[in-house]
Specification:
The structure is a homodimer. By secondary structure, chain A is mostly helical. The first copy, chain A, contains 6 helices and 2 strands. The longest helix of chain A has 26 residues. At the A-B interface, α1, α5 and α6 of A face α1, α5 and α6 of B. Chain A binds a DNA duplex through α4.
DNA sequence: TATTGTTATACTCTATAACTATA
DNA sequence: TATAGTTATAGAGTATAACAATA
């Protein structure tokens, strides 16, 4: 295997492990990864449906369904835009904020377990390298704590 | 934000970026991430349905559907086990092998783009750190080139 | 005309439960 | 009894196409 193949495989496996951890933690609260990301985006924004779709990389019809299901569970609200009568503003409820905090905390614990074999210096190094990789992206995907986009 | 939170967020964003790249490449061939992983597992194995489920972390009923759809597309074959008449052995076809190679190559190109901002030494460092994180897992998730599990 | 959002439709992916066949 | 696999069913998630309302 070339060095490139080794890097590709290592990042793929790391990503599967991180995603699996988030899936597992979210599942304990009957949430999916995309729902966790939805709440992450709404943590410090109240976007329109279409802006939400851009943040999550989803079609507007997918956002409609996603928001419908979250609203049915009392996690988000839709309010009409005062300036554009076609538009809705999406916001998370207090219950959603509490839920998102719990999920993020438990996820952090799982990442802590995953990286337990690294020294403090190695963890800082991994953080820096991961940030360098992601910083090259114009549209960062929304993460769990809502940081890093726009 | 604490150092732990920074690490958690950096790994979450990195994982989303890597997964998004794989999703995008696979989509160009009408494939999903799980289908790519399926072919990755079959690259050097011909497991039973239940063993396949363990490799992918899926219920046997999910595997049935997944294999059905792949078989309908001519990507895999089912053959009866000679020793256990309840059991099926799953194998990938030549067409699937060619397809998996193309997807893996394009995915490698995307990861190359993502890490273009790193020096050769930094890429080696990232590979080593990612491998250290994943090596702590007893059951590694199947990656794109089929390496790293069992 | 273009944009915002919803709805209808179709498909993949996933799990639970019930089932058949074999061990 | 236990295991291997399929099928029926239900629900989340996604996209495309058609639509209504507004800009």
């Amino acid at each position: 295997m070339t060095e490139t193949d080794e890097l590709v495989d290592a990042l793929a496996q790391l990503s599967f492990a991180v995603t699996a951890a988030l899936t597992e933690v979210a599942g304990r609260y009957d949430m999916s990864v995309v729902q966790v990301r939805l709440l992450g985006v709404l943590r410090d924004r109240e976007p329109s449906m279409s802006a939400l779709g851009r943040h999550l990389g989803l079609d507007k019809s997918s956002v409609s369904g996603l928001v419908d299901r979250a609203q049915r569970r009392g996690l988000i609200t839709r309010t009409p835009s005062p300036t554009d009568r076609r538009s809705q503003h999406v916001a998370m409820t207090g219950a959603a904020r509490a839920l998102a905090t719990r999920v993020a905390d438990e996820f952090a614990g799982r990442v802590d377990d995953l990286t337990a074999g690294l020294s403090a210096e190695e963890r800082r190094l991994l953080t820096a390298l991961a940030n360098r990789v992601v910083s090259g992206l114009s549209e960062s995907p929304a993460a769990v704590r809502g940081a890093g986009d726009h």
